[in-house]
Amino acid sequence: MNFDTFFSEELVFFLDVSSQEELFKEMFGRMHSLGYVKESYLEALSEREKVYPTGIQTEHLGVAIPHTDSIHVNKESIGVAVLNTPVSFSHMGMPDETVDAEIIFMLAIQKPDRQLGVLQIITGLMQNKEMLMKIRNAEDEKAIISTIKDYSSELNV
Fold first, then answer.
1. Does pTM surpass 0.90?
2. What are the residue boundaries of the PTS EIIA type-2 domain, all occurrences included (predicted)?
3. Which are the contacts of 81, defined by CB distance < 8 A and separation ≥ 6?
């Protein structure tokens, strides 16, 4: 699996949103208009997040990894959003706790057998303070994609 192929500058977002719903609509809108996800993706994403929350509090900042089933995906991709103001997500594994997420990795994975591998790589990236902060402080789309490619080349994935 070539991890880099999931990312593109057209799916990098710098957003000023005030809710998870607004965040999902913004990211879905572009992903859908570019043909990455089906119309059903947005509702499926919101419903899955209610049952299986994806917020994760790292040592340095909050991250979320919203995703849904492969039947809602046309073309594999991962949208990356850096938020001006954090958005609240329920904590993965502890739904009574919340995470103020500043970075979002929105997965659109077509092959279910790849999802676990992708999640493991993103989890590793989230634990790398230097890489995570480079994404958080990036000035543009190119810098985020470059950081992700640097990370994946270190792992050779």
1. yes
2. 4-151
3. 12, 13, 14, 15, 23, 26, 27, 103, 104, 106
- Tell whether domain 3-155 is in CATH 3.40.630.30: no
Structure tokens at 88: 């609240």
How far apart are alpha carbons 127 and 156 in whole angstroms?
A: 17
Q: Distance (Å, rounded) from C-alpha 78 to C-alpha 82? A: 13
CA–CA gap between residue 61 and residue 102 (Å, rounded): 7
Distances (CA, A) of 127 to 9, 22, 154: 23, 27, 14
List the domain boundaries for the chain: 3-155
pLDDT on residue 114: 83
- Kindly tell me the sign of the dihedral angle through the C-alpha atoms of 100, 103, 108, 112: negative
SS (H, E, C) 83-147: EEEEEEEEECCEEEEEEEEEEEEEEECCCHHHHHHHHHHHHHHHCCHHHHHHHHCCCCHHHHHHH
C-alpha span between 55 and 59 (Å, rounded): 13
- In whole angstroms, give the CA distance from residue 111 to residue 67: 13
